[in-house]
Description:
By secondary structure, this protein is α/β, with parallel strands linked by helices. The chain contains eight helices and nine strands.
Amino acid sequence: xxxxxxxxxxxxxxxxxxxxxxxxxxxxxxxxxxxxxxxxxxxxxxxxxxxxxxxxxxxxxxxxxxxxxxxxxxxxxxxxxxxxxxxxxxxxxxxxxxxxxxxxxxxxxxxxxxxxxxxxxxxxxxxxxxxxxxxxxxxxxxxxxxxxxxxxxxxxxxxxxxxxxxxxxxxxxxxxxxxxxxxxxxxxxxxxxxxxxxxxxxxxxxxxxxxxxxxxxxxxxxxxxxxxxxxxxxx
Length: 235
Ligand SMILES: Nc1nc2c(ncn2[C@@H]2O[C@H](COP(=O)(O)OP(=O)(O)OP(=O)(O)O)[C@@H](O)[C@H]2O)c(=O)[nH]1
Ligand SMILES: [Mg+2]
């Protein structure tokens, strides 16, 4: 069984479409981690779970919201299930479920598979050139500092073998925003995980709003340095 963890914050229009598409795939279950969305995404997720209790589960967070914290809680819960593969993806329809079978297939030969915009065949639809440049530069920056090999270190579309995920000390992670994704790859690579990439077409969200703030961007700029510093201080 493959379990897909979906962090949500104000995704009321996107979540039902995404969950429907995911449940159309065989052997896939969904875990929604909602951060007390003011737009009522949590209640919509509950309704989806009531309709398909065998395949949809919802966690409701309270307290400070955060993508990283949501992932920690969701992934730890995912590890309590019998899922052999645990996936993560954005809930704003930027990550098309039609790519999921390719990620799952590649996990036969890898510990983590990245749905990648920056390998041959990958693409981005509806991003202005400024946003493309920012993402490109972010990846060059991260690769230079962390020495990670992956082309797309910031993609949130991934498929993990459960053993690789279980080996990571998720509780001890230092980042909370989007850089949580970079930290996951960095820790996995440090543990010798085999990292693979398969091309995806990323489509910018059409509904709802981005949560990319200045604070999140700053954290993303600092995290690679903090990761290598920590890497040097622990044997
Ligand atoms: N649980 C939780 N989910 C979050 C939080 N911030 C963002 N998300 C979810 O994380 C995913 C990615 O967030 P987005 O706002 O789409 O970020 P982005 O893709 O960089 O920005 P856009 O290009 O504007 O979509 C979406 O499913 C969001 O709902 C948060 O604080 N808590
Ligand atoms: Mg998005």
